[in-house]
Amino acid sequence: MLEELFRGLLQCIWAFLGSLCFGIVFNIRGKNLFYSAFGGFVAWVAYLLCGIVVPEEIVQYFVASVVISIYSESMAVYRKTPVTVFIVLGMVPLVPGGSIFYTMQHLIMGEYQLSYKVGVYTFAIAGAIAMGILIASFLVQLFKFSITNINQKKHKKEEKDNGKAL
């Protein structure tokens, strides 16, 4: 149990460091570099925690992408920075690079059936990540719109009430 916890923590630290290195390559500076790399940490924590509850790997990728999308949207507002700065680095640990490699390896080796199987699985992971980003971004934008709309109605009502009082 303790060994699994240590292994998971180590994986999360590597996810952070991998995202940090990509942030350096992408020329992200200052605190945004740390917050963006921390997004990779958050994504991998979400992936591992979801794995405890749901053993299906595609669901884990979906949940992790939803979590990192919400994190990225909130950090974009907090840091007054475009959301892509946070979401790109946060998704680095989730990229199915190994699956893409094995798909191509099987294809080159002439193992077409296995290549097809791994390729479909890779596309399923990519689709789960894309759907997670899409759904989370939509929900965050809907929430922002609702809050703005409520505040505007409240402000108009206050102006109307102030006009009657005079």
Strand content: under 5%
Q: What's the β-strand tally?
A: 0
The SS-based structural class is mainly alpha
Major pleated sheet: none
| Dominant shape | elongated
Low-confidence runs: none
Measured distance between first and last alpha carbons: 70 Å
Task: Report the helical percentage.
Answer: over 70%
Number of helices: 6
Transmembrane segments: 6-26, 33-54, 60-78, 85-108, 120-143
Keywords: Cell inner membrane, Cell membrane, Membrane, Transmembrane, Transmembrane helix
Domain Threonine/Serine exporter ThrE: 11-138
Family: Belongs to the ThrE exporter (TC 2.A.79) family.
Question: Can you walk me through this structure?
Answer:
This protein is an all-alpha fold and 166 residues long. Helix content is 87%, strand content 0%. The protein has one domain (2-149). Helix 3 (57-79) runs antiparallel to helix 4 and helix 5 packs antiparallel against helix 6 (112-165). The relative contact order is 0.11. It is found in: Cell membrane. Residues 11-138 form the Threonine/Serine exporter ThrE domain. The chain crosses the membrane at residues 6-26, 33-54, 60-78, 85-108, 120-143.
